[in-house]
Amino acid sequence: MLCVVCWVSAGAQVAPQALPVGEAHATAPVTAPAVTRLQEALLEAMRDHESRSERETFLAPIVAAVFDLRNIARISLGSTWRELDESARKDFVARLQTLISATYAARFEVAKGLSFEILAIENAPRGQVARTRLLRPPDDPVSLDYFLRDGRIFDVVADGVSDLSLRRADYASVIRSAGYPALLDDLEASIVKLRSDDAI
């Protein structure tokens, strides 16, 4: 259900950014520590942690620190969020953290020349956008835009596709057809699959 970085193993082809890298660095008005921390952690996880469980354990606190998980949960659930009590909201946020951590642990397995490059950091109406790309020679780079509010990531757009928008649509569909408990079951099933050997 969560599509974060699924294109890494799927081999999506994305054309390089037109903006020269040197120019992007020279004109960037601010930095995005959350993005830098996440990308450095992903590379470290691949380099120093062999198993998915080790990578997930390593990445979990970083995911909690750099992502605005509560706002992601609120936006993803829409009106359902308002119907939940505080205990249920905290439970959903915790599940979301586990899902994102397990997703990154499964998708980023072997570095093999992978690296990240920050092209530019732009001001947005309600925060910032960090324009970056994942370099993975000999394949084409993957464009990654991180949307931030108050210094924390609330959406990742890969090749023009918003992870937050996809999640909101998926969650709404499940809740509408089978109810909120079914969504929790789906999230748990996704986590189990991501932790298994046949995760894609």
Description:
This protein is an alpha+beta fold. The protein has a single domain, classed as Nuclear Transport Factor 2, Chain: A, CATH 3.10.450. The chain is about 55% helix and about 20% strand. The chain contains nine helices and five strands, in the order αααααααβββββαα. A five-stranded antiparallel beta sheet has the order 1-2-3-4-5. Helix 4 crosses helix 7, helix 5 crosses helix 7 (about 85-105) and helix 7 packs parallel to helix 9.
Which characteristics define this entry?
single chain; 200 residues; alpha+beta; Nuclear Transport Factor 2, Chain: A; 5-stranded antiparallel beta sheet; 5 strands; 55% helix; 18% strand; globular
Helix- and strand-based class?
alpha+beta
Report the radius of gyration as a whole number of Å. Answer: 17 Å
By CATH, the superfamily comes out as Tgt2/MlaC
String of helices and strands = HHHHHHHEEEEEHH
Q: What is the strand content? A: 15-25%
**CATH fold title:** Nuclear Transport Factor 2, Chain: A
Main sheet summary: 5 strands, antiparallel
Please state the second-level CATH architecture: Roll
Share of helix, binned: 55-70%
In what order do the strands lie side by side in the largest sheet?
1-2-3-4-5
Number of separate structural domains: 1
- What is the CATH class? Alpha Beta
Report mean pLDDT, rounded to a whole number: 86
Terminal CA distance reads 12 Å
What is the count of DSSP helices, taking H or I runs of 4+ residues?
9
**Oligomer classification:** single chain
Number of strands: 5
